[in-house]
Amino acid sequence: MLVLAISIDYKNLNKEIKMIGLLDIKNEAHFSKELASDPITAIYPREVTQACFSFSQTKKPANPELVHLSEQFLAELGVAADNKNELVGVLSGAETFHDFKPYAMCYGGHQFGNWAGQLGDGRALNIAELPINGKNWKLQLKGAGPTPYSRGADGFAVLRSSIREYLCSEAMHNLGIPTTRALSLVKTGDLVSRDILYSGHPKDEQGAIVCRAAESFIRFGSFEIFSARGDKYSLKKLVDYTIKHHFTELGKPNKETYLHFFQTVVSKTLEMIIHWQRVGFVHGVMNTDNMSILGLTIDYGPYGWLEDFDPEWTPNTTDSGHRRYRFGNQHSVALWNLTQLANALYSLVEEVEPLQEILNRYTSDYHVLYHKMMASKIGIFTASNASPELISELKSLLSKSEIDMTIFYREFSKEIKDFDAFWKVIILASYQNKEALENGINAWQDWFEDFYAVLKKEAIESEERIKAMRAINPKYVLRNYMAQLAIDDAEKNDYGLLDELYRVLKKPYDEQPEMEKWFAKRPDWAKEKVGCSMLSCSS
Ligand code: AMP
Ligand code: MG
User: Which of 175, 199, 245, 492 to pair with 273, CA 20 to 30 A apart?
Assistant: First the structure.
């Protein structure tokens, strides 16, 4: 057993050196050592005060089976998969990670705009804190049984939602988007009852566990819960801890540092939102308990990918009334959520103005970054060359002509010399029939002329421009129907498609001609199918 914390540069490992096994790494707890724990260790639902977490236990699964392992993530960590039998024990919650005591984190949150009080990890358990390459990775099992935060729910997760989280976390990482990672997917062999349509007809589904990883799972709601309870002492402890471990460069905590901390969280969140808008990702449940303090995409529930460019679209059935979490509103919701975080931090700063200034800057920065991102998607890399009207008219046309976002931008990342060539892209990417589409041809022609005039001003060589466009306009994204096909097979114990999608999404910007079938519009059958168009929160 190797007892040293490893700091190996895995890229330079030569083949003679045996890579350290994941289970050989010794835990180095920060969170659960430095922060206050709930003194009660029994597992029953309760309010937990003056504590950041509760020790809890995983439930022993009936018949754990390792369905998939993210070899890419392990390779990036420079860690070997060890003996798979031993690994599945730990990754299914059957065994502990050495003598590490699993714990569930305490947090609150604003859900759909309302303060919901204490939420916490109702079905997630941290099972390790591992020092790897200078970082401290928290491993968390999602669906390993009830915790003190489970409220009325069971603490488990089903296979379909676990596949969606597993595939999407890794896909997002490969798209270059900050996210929690997924290490493994395990079936528990237990049945879990879920009413997927909330129609009063629950069904037994296969239970599963994703092991997800991040440097921290602290959320906006982790701070809000202390502020809501007027517990300034615990709030300060958690903020100071977060700065010490995750915002080290900010230095010793004081009022100024707290403001820098907030500013950094605002910038990271903004960066994440711009990425989501770039690739057409709709999170679906941007409650403040689902907002990572590190600006990571977290909690993959009823998410979706924009297909027919409807900015009003939300994949979440629970949100279909107000569409709070619709694609086109994600930046505003992020600001609203950041405002809740500012409120929570207020008692440490004791001044409204500097917090408000930071929030105001979010809005102006958003417009600049959004314009830059949108211009670069159409190959205009000197953002000032593109007028705001050029971008807004494009969005309006994409929407009116029901254009598939991924296909349009990718096909546009080619040498397009005239309107005829451009129109072929529109036909290929539109969900409308020819007749309906042709009603908009004149508007498209006008837009293309304006665009072409701007393009001529760009100093960049065409080949270089196309290369740069292809690096930001993905060819492959995890459309809901693709995930659903993998789920349908996996429920019948066939994991071939799951693995195929995992592999194609490893290189979303590469052509991968053998995977061309996944570069296609959503098929008609998927338009209304449960799990493909809209999703419930049942998971
Ligand atoms: P979510 O909408 O998935 O972010 O979940 C909101 C809250 O509900 C979090 O506190 C979760 O831990 C909790 N939760 C969701 N599903 C379950 C479940 N099956 N068992 C226990 N808690 C759950
Ligand atoms: Mg959540």
Answer: 245
